[in-house]
Structures are given as structure tokens and as C-alpha cells.
Amino acid sequence: MQYEVIKKESLHNGFFKLNRYHIRNELFEGGWSSIFTREVFERGYASAILLFDPQLEKLVFVEQFRPGAMESESSPWLMELVAGMIEIDEQPDSVAIRESQEEAGCEVTRIRKICEYLVSPGGTTERIWLYVGEIDASSLPDYAGLDDENEDIRIHSVSVSRAFEWLDSGRLNNAMTLIAVQWFKLNWQKNEDLFDVN
């Protein structure tokens, strides 16, 4: 199947980009569609990591203010995974490791890829690389974040059972965190090495 971009217009070029595409694509039954337009939010790519201490059986989340959640019924201070944007020439796993230090003050000793997914491909290019990382959660700071990125982050180190309660109650309400904790719930078993995939 083929598609063709007839024209691309820049509608906004700020912290994020918004473009309008004039497109046509091949049809399943043959031939081509008529030309149609779509606005696409050029969000970029990001890495996120679920931090896990297998000795303490704890998962680590970060809490921070999110403008996109201001209109939601719950608080705009969300419980999330450590995450960060992937810049040009960066590898997704390296970003996850770096952001773990910046946002949670911890060192990732082992890392495993969970999945890679498109956030909402009907209107944004955003793609997420999702990982689980092994850490020592015994001496995490209470707060973290970079001042020059306006990050104000509170760190939560919670038992696996508490994280599952948050999952079931709706306390965790953003896609990357839901996907990661659901994956963890399906794959983690006590006394087994989550990072041994052989």
C-alpha cells in the first residue's frame, strides 16, 4: 500500500510543532482516495522506564504537574514513569537510563525493553519506547528534576502490591504507566529474575 503527501503546511513551530498534511492513499479495494487534510501534532519520540528494586520489591514512580491533565476530573499532578524526549543521535535505552538519574536520582543496573508503541497515530507522531529497569531504591531522594527544564518532581517508592492497588483503583491514569504496570503484573513473579529473558 502506498500514500502520497501532496502538500505540508507548518501551522505552529514552538515547543512542539503542528503541521497540516494534504494526503492521498491507496484504497484496499483498489485505486486512490481523494486528497484529504489532517493536522498532525509533531510531538517527537520519548523513552519511559518503570524502575524496580527486586531486593525491596518496590516500584518507583514520579509525580509532577502536567498541563495536558488540567481539564481532567482528577488532579493534574500525575503519577508517572520516569521519561524523557529522545534527541537526535540518542538511543532510546540511553535516554531512559539518563532520565532515571535526572528524575529519580538512581542508577539503572539492568534494563529490559517492554515494548514500543504509537501514542495516538490518528493525530500525532509521538512514539514511546518503554522499559523496565533494575535499581537500588534504598536511598532515593524525596524530590528531583532539573531547574532549567522547570521540573518539580516528587519521588514515590512503593511496594509492588501498592502499585497494583493503584492500577486497579485508577490512581495510575496515563497510558505509558498503565501499560508498564500491567506488563509488570503479567510478567513478574517473586524469586524469578525479570531481566533474564533467555
Taken from the alpha-carbon principal axes, the silhouette is globular
CATH topology of the largest domain: Nucleoside Triphosphate Pyrophosphohydrolase
Broad structural category: alpha+beta
Largest sheet: 8 strands, mixed
- Count the E strands: 11
Q: Measured on Cα atoms, how large is the radius of gyration?
A: 19 Å
Structure description:
By secondary structure, the chain is α+β, with helices and mostly antiparallel strands. It folds into two domains: 3-42, no CATH class; 45-187, Nucleoside Triphosphate Pyrophosphohydrolase, CATH 3.90.79. The protein has helices at 92-104, 160-169, 175-187, and strands at 3-13, 17-25, 36-42, 45-53, 58-65, 77-80, 82-85, 110-118, 127-134, 143-144, 153-159. The strands form two sheets. Strands 4, 5, 6, 7, 8, 9, 10 and 11 form an eight-stranded mixed β-sheet that branches. It has a three-stranded antiparallel β-sheet with strand order 1-2-3, with no helix packed on it. The longest helix is centred in the middle third of the chain and has 13 residues, at 92-104. The radius of gyration is 19 Å and the shape is globular. The two termini are 36 Å apart.
